[in-house]
Amino acid sequence: RTSNSLTAGQQQSIELKFVLSAGSEELAAEQAANRDLLVVDAPEGCHNLWRKTLASLKQLEQRYKYSYYMHADDDSYVRLDLVLQLLVSGCNTSRAPTGMWPQP
């Protein structure tokens, strides 16, 4: 099966959240309009990514029931179609880290 053949239930069960550090009224407006933000109390900046990731994981555990979690930074390209294909294939993904490191 491909990602194009997801059932309606599978499609509705997918939630994408963008993790951002607490901030402005613009973020509040974006969240009100799209409900796709996970705003965390962690400083911005590349040296604080671990803090942001930890804060997002804590909120996920407290607020959501989920089976899978994927973290991607703003410099990542995610082939969501392939990720979804892996998930719906019935493959045991409990220990299936995926990713690709850039070649020097």
Output the strand order for the largest sheet.
1-2
Fraction of residues in helices?
25-40%
Q: Tally the helices: what do you get?
A: 4
- The Rg value, from CA coordinates, equals 16 Å
Q: Compute the average pLDDT.
A: 79
Q: How would you sum up the major sheet?
A: 2 strands, parallel
N- and C-termini, Cα separation: 35 Å
Look at the helices and sheets and give the structural class. mainly alpha
Structure commentary:
- By secondary structure, the protein is mostly helical.
- The protein contains 4 helices and 2 strands.
- It has helices spanning 8-12, 25-34, 49-63, 80-88; strands at residues 18-21, 37-40.
- A two-stranded parallel ribbon has the order 1-2.
- The protein starts with 7 loop residues before the first helix and ends in a 16-residue tail after the last helix.
- The model has no long low-confidence stretch (mean pLDDT 79).
Quick structural gist:
This protein has 104 residues and is mainly alpha-helical. It contains four helices and two strands, in the order H-E-H-E-H-H.
Topology, pairings included?
Elements: H1 8-12, E1 18-21, H2 25-34, E2 37-40, H3 49-63, H4 80-88
Parallel strand pairs: 1-2
